[in-house]
Design brief:
Length: about 170
C-alpha cells in the first residue's frame, strides 16, 4: 500500500494551467496594484513547492560520510517584475492552444498565437520597498502567444491547456 499524505497537502497544489489562469486571465481591465498581490502570493507559495528548490545537499568532511540535507533560509517576499493580464475567459485562451504551433522564445515548438488581438493589461514594477510592491498599469490591445501542454489530471478537460504567456 502506498504512503498516506494529509489531504490538505494535496488540496493546496495547483496545476500549471490553474496557476496560469490566476496569473494571467481576467474578464476585463484591471488595476495592477489590486491584482498583483495575488500573483506575487502565488509566486511566493509555489517557488518552494519542490523540496529540492528549498534545500541544499552537503557532504560531510569524511570520504565515506553520508549526505546531509540542510534547509536554506526562507526567501523574502518577492515582487514580480512584470506581468500581463489577458482580458478574456480561460476557455477562449485555451482555444488558442488549438491554433497552429509556432516556436516559443525558449526554442520549444508548443506556442500558439491568438487569432485576433485582445485587450490586455501590462503591469510593470515601479517600486519594491521591503516587499511592498507598486506597479504601473498599462492598457494594451494586441495579439498574445501562449505555450500549451497536455492537461494535468485536475485540469479542465481540454486537449491542450495554456501554461505560460510567451
Amino acid at each position: 500500500m502506498g504512503s498516506v499524505h494529509p489531504l490538505g497537502a494535496w488540496a493546496q497544489l495547483l496545476t500549471r494551467a490553474q496557476k496560469f489562469e490566476i496569473s494571467h486571465v481576467r474578464p476585463g481591465p484591471v488595476q495592477c496594484n489590486n491584482e498583483m498581490p495575488r500573483v506575487n502570493s502565488l509566486l511566493e507559495k509555489y517557488q518552494g513547492q519542490n523540496s529540492f528548490v528549498s534545500q541544499r545537499f552537503e557532504t560531510s568532511n569524511t570520504r565515506s560520510g553520508p549526505l546531509q540535507c540542510r534547509s536554506e533560509r526562507p526567501r523574502p517576499k518577492k515582487c514580480k517584475d512584470q506581468n500581463t493580464f489577458l482580458h478574456d475567459s480561460f476557455h477562449n485562451v485555451a482555444a488558442t492552444c488549438l491554433l497552429p504551433n509556432r516556436v516559443c522564445r525558449n526554442g520549444q515548438n508548443n506556442c500558439h498565437q491568438s487569432a485576433n488581438p485582445i485587450g490586455k493589461t501590462y503591469c510593470k514594477l515601479i517600486r519594491d520597498t521591503d516587499g511592498d510592491c507598486r506597479y504601473s498599469t498599462i492598457p494594451q490591445y494586441d495579439f498574445y502567444t501562449v505555450a500549451c501542454d497536455r492537461p494535468q489530471p485536475d485540469d479542465v478537460p481540454y486537449p491542450l491547456v495554456p501554461v505560460h504567456l510567451d
